[in-house]
Amino acid sequence: MSLFQSCLSLESIPTTFCFLFFSFTFLFSMFSLAIFILRLKPWCNCDVCRSFLTSSWAGEFENLCDWYTHLLRKSPSGTVHVHVLGNTITANPENVEHMLKTRFDNYPKGKPFSTLLGDLLGRGIFNVDGDSWRFQRKMASLELGSITVRSYALEIVSSEIKSRLIPLLRSFAVAGGKTGDVVDLQDVFRRFSFDNICKFSFGLDPGCLRLSLPISDLAVAFDLASKLSAERALSASPVIWKMKRLLNIGSERKLKEAIKLVNELAKEIINERRRMGFSTQKDLLSRFMASIDDEDYLRDIVISFLLAGRDTVASGLTSFFYLISNHPDVERAIREESDRVMGPDCEIASYDQMREMHYLHAAVYESMRLYPPIQFDSKFSQDDDVFPDGTLIQKGTRVTYHPYAMGRMERVWGPDCLEFKPERWLKNGVFTPVSPFKYPVFQAGLRVCLGKEMALVEMKSVVVALLRRFDIRVSGSNSNRSPKFAPGLTATVRGGLPVHVHERGV
């Protein structure tokens, strides 16, 4: 009997399987290492790549985005090319306008991006180009632009603030300057925005912000799937995570399980809409269902709504209250403005009242200048191109604009760029916007965020309601330390934002 035949005998199957498995694992590890080494091959000796290979950025900077900011500041053009990552990164507003407007057709999301997030986002609006993107964009634009829909959204937000957010924080608050329990404000805002987006988009109330703080299976599965999808980008090569997915091992196995649960729960939401009669409902999903029959497509739209309406708003609010905790002068100015516009007894600001609060609007914009919910965004060049600053872009290159870094560039915002200074947005007391390509927090050009106005209204409603009722201070040593961000599709503070809550006037 040959050695090959012996290996196939029934008695030897367990031993043979183990041998083959560990042999393959060893070869796969060596293959992965070889790919990583090849990506670091010495043909590139530029300052950026030498910095990438020799510096320990983790020891010098709190976050990877701070290291990118450091590199972009050192670049005369505000643009760097990291050869080992195959990525051109820019903080130059002229380049951003070139990508998002002038040569929009040359810089789609691209296949590499859609492959990276395709298992989670599918054919949703954030993961597609071309006709599919235009179709979803047109439908969403028609719905989100209507006064009726915006009024419906504000109604939901106001109800969630009055009936859940304020009572919950009041349960943690103490009077008389005593120190009460610490609450994770980031978790509170994630629950708040999850309730809102589910009610607004699907007509369903998960009740995550009830006093018992229940756990939502959908929220947990979605968080894990988002985190693991984003971590794919940290692999030395796409081959590594694709091989893990093929073998169904490690993080890819966890991702598959999380996405399976997300899919099941998303389909339950769709079926529930059908049972309730979607043609008479106000929520966004019902409006889409009137035009779309494809179950998988509807699932992808559900996931896109969750991504757009939950994590970005929660991230923006978390950063705002981190900053306001250390800037009592800004907090005082917002309170004074709200008292002047709303009067002392009004609970929740109306849409018209918020339009009169220019300082509040400036403070929210300034917060997101320093801590944008989406810290960077990438496209892929379809053809060779040249940026306005002279940078050559080869076909197939990943090109990234970096709002986080842009907010910290002296050449863009002046010598006080690191200061939290809402006044920079005001002229004679009136909010005055800048070019969206200088401030691409909501993207810009044809892909500008359709939910921008509703997100701002939601954030400002929360800010006014909470600052008029509570003093909220970041706990202990966290107050003097810059936030550390966890890897993800949006900016999430690692470890949350622990705060003490004190009720005012008690």
From TrEMBL:
What keywords sit in the KW lines? Heme, Iron, Membrane, Metal-binding, Monooxygenase, Oxidoreductase, Transmembrane, Transmembrane helix
Q: Name one GO molecular function term.
A: monooxygenase activity
> What cofactor requirement does the entry state?
heme
User: Which CDD domains does this chain map to?
Assistant: CYP86A (cd11064)
TM ranges? 12-38
Q: Which residues bind heme?
A: 449
Q: Which InterPro entries match?
A: Cyt_P450 (IPR001128), Cyt_P450_E_grp-I (IPR002401), Cyt_P450_sf (IPR036396)
Q: Which Pfam families match?
A: p450
Q: Which family does the UniProt entry place this protein in?
A: Belongs to the cytochrome P450 family.
| Name listed for the protein in its UniProt record | Cytochrome P450 94C1
User: Which organism was this protein described from?
Assistant: Ziziphus jujuba
